[in-house]
Amino acid sequence: MKRGKLIVLVGPTAVGKTICAIRLATHFRTEVVSADSRQVFREMVIGTAKPSSIELDQVKHHFIDCRSIAEGYDAGTYAEEARSVIDSLFSVHERVILCGGSGLYIKALLEGFDELPDVPEEVRTGVIAAYEQAGLSWLQEEVKREDPAYFAIVDRKNPQRLMRALEVIRYTRQPFSGFHKNASRILPFDVVKIGLNLDREILYQRIDQRVDDMIAQGLIDEAERLFAHRHLPALQTVGYQEIFGHLEGKYDRDEAIRLLKRNTRHYAKRQLTWFRKDSSIQWFSPEDWRGILMACETVTSAQ
C-alpha cells in the first residue's frame, strides 16, 4: 500500500499558516488537522485567531473547538487523539495537512517524548506555594536558571507550564527539557515539513495589525466574559493575560494593547527558536506558493 504523506505546516503566529493550509488542502482535496494548543478551546475565539467560519466552511478542520476551558488538555492527549484522526484520514486521502504553531504538540505527535515522572504531592504543593508568595517573575527566573533551554521556548506568561517544569526539575534534579529528547516513534506515513516566515519587520507589522483587528472584533468583551475563569490553565496565555490585567485595574486599555503586541512578538520569537532547531523544515515565504507546492509534491522524509 502506498504510504500517505503528512504535510506539516509550521511558523510563527500571524505569518499566514491558516491561509496556506486551506490552499494546500483545497489543492490536494484533503483536510486540515490543527496543531494549536489554544484553538482547541471553544470559549477562546478572538484571542486565539481561529480560522473564520468562512475558512472553516472551505476545508474541514480537526481539533478546533473540541474542548472546554474547564477540561484539562495536554500534548500527550493531543498526540494520541491526533494520530487516530490522521490514521483515519489516510484511509481516504493520500495527503493530510497538519498546521499549527504549537511546537510541543507537533513534537509529541511525530516523535513522542519520554514519560514524565510522577512528582510527589509535597514537591508540587511546595512549588505552588512558592509561586503564590513570590510571583511570576520569581517562577520565570527559577526555570531560566535551572533549564535555560526550556525557558527559551516555553510560554513565559504561563505559570502552569513553568510550575510543571520546576516541579520535575526539583524532584528529578534533571532539566525538564531532557525529557523531550530520547523518545522515538516509527510512523507509517512520510512527513514533509514546511516552515513559513517573513522578514522580522513585516512579521511584526502583521502581528500589530492582528492585535488591532482583535480589539476591533471584541477581544476585550470576550476577555470580560472569561474573566471569572482567568485562573484556568487554558487562559494563562498571551492574548488574555494582558486584557485581564487591564480589567483588574492594573493599567489602562492602551497599555494592555501595547503589552499584547509586545508579548505576541516575543511569542513569535520563541516559536521560531523552537522550529529552527529542526533541520528537516524547509523554509518559505508564505507568498512562495510554487516553492511550497514543489516541496509538498517531491520531498518526503521517512520517519
Could you please describe the fold and organization of this structure?
- By secondary structure, this protein is α/β, with parallel strands linked by helices.
- The chain folds into two domains: 5-113 and 184-302, P-loop containing nucleotide triphosphate hydrolases (Rossmann fold); 121-180, Histone, subunit A, CATH 1.10.20.
- 50% of the residues lie in helices and 9% in strands.
- The protein contains 13 helices and seven strands.
- It has helices at residues 17-28, 53-58, 75-89, 103-110, 121-134, 136-146, 148-151, 159-172, 200-217, 219-226, 241-247, 253-276, 289-298; strands at 5-10, 32-34, 61-62, 95-99, 190-196, 282-284, 301-302.
- Strands 1, 2, 3, 4, 5, 6 and 7 form a seven-stranded mixed β-sheet that branches.
- The radius of gyration is 19 Å and the shape is globular.
Briefly say what this structure is.
The protein is of the alpha/beta class and 303 residues long. It folds into 2 domains: 228 residues, Rossmann fold; 60 residues, Orthogonal Bundle (Histone, subunit A).
Question: Which key phrases capture this entry?
Answer:
Histone, subunit A, 303 residues, 2 domains, 13 helices, alpha/beta, disordered C terminus
Q: Which helices and strands occur, and which strands form pairs?
A:
Elements: E1 5-10, H1 17-28, E2 32-34, H2 53-58, E3 61-62, H3 75-89, E4 95-99, H4 103-110, H5 121-134, H6 136-146, H7 148-151, H8 159-172, E5 190-196, H9 200-217, H10 219-226, H11 241-247, H12 253-276, E6 282-284, H13 289-298, E7 301-302
Give the helix tally.
13
According to CATH, what is the class of the largest domain? Alpha Beta
Tell me, rounded to a whole number, the average pLDDT: 92
**Domain count:** 2
What portion of the residues fall into strands of 2 or more residues?
Answer: 5-15%
* C-alpha-based Rg, rounded: 19 Å
Question: Oligomeric status of the shown chains?
Answer: single chain
- Poorly predicted runs are 299-303
Helix and strand composition category? alpha/beta
What is the CATH topology of the largest domain? Answer: Rossmann fold
Helix content range: 40-55%
For the record, the CATH architecture of the largest domain stands as 3-Layer(aba) Sandwich
CATH superfamily of the largest domain: P-loop containing nucleotide triphosphate hydrolases
For the biggest sheet, the summary is:
7 strands, mixed
End-to-end distance: 17 Å
From the spread of the alpha carbons, the general shape counts as globular
Helix and strand pattern: EHEHEHEHHHHHEHHHHEHE
Count of individual beta strands: 7
